[in-house]
Design goal:
mainly alpha
């Protein structure tokens, strides 16, 4: 994920309140439309939606705090638990970067889980 780079962090620091272009009801569709050509070129058959959910899975597998996971995914945990930065209890970019790095390091774990599904361990009597 490009956000993990120093350049990505520098760009995000310019937008501490997010990207206004995507902060309306059509924002998710707009961002998907913008990123779709990239994802279909780099990962045929995948979309921005797929990448978002893959990252969500990796964050979960790596044991990242649910609040940070929600913040990175652009979600809330329901009720009054918002982690977008508007409520004053947002996570820092450093915390999010560390969580993403931890999640990306967990990527081989998913591959191992997939191998377990296709090659279940044999039990010896």
């Amino acid at each position: 994920m490009p956000i993990v780079t120093a350049e990505g962090i520098a760009i995000l620091k310019k937008y501490t309140n997010g990207f206004p272009k995507f902060q309306d009801d059509k924002g998710p569709s707009r961002i998907n439309k913008i990123f779709s050509p990239f994802f279909t070129t780099v990962t045929p058959g995948k979309s921005f939606y797929s990448a978002r959910h893959r990252m969500d899975d990796l964050l979960k597998i790596s044991g990242v705090d649910l609040g940070i996971k929600a913040s990175i995914s652009g979600r809330s945990l329901g009720g009054h638990l918002h982690y977008y930065g508007k409520s004053g209890n947002a996570y820092t970019l450093k915390q999010k970067k560390e969580a993403i790095e931890k999640a990306l390091a967990a990527a081989p774990i998913k591959k191992e889980q997939e191998n377990e599904k296709t090659n279940p361990p044999t039990s010896k009597p």
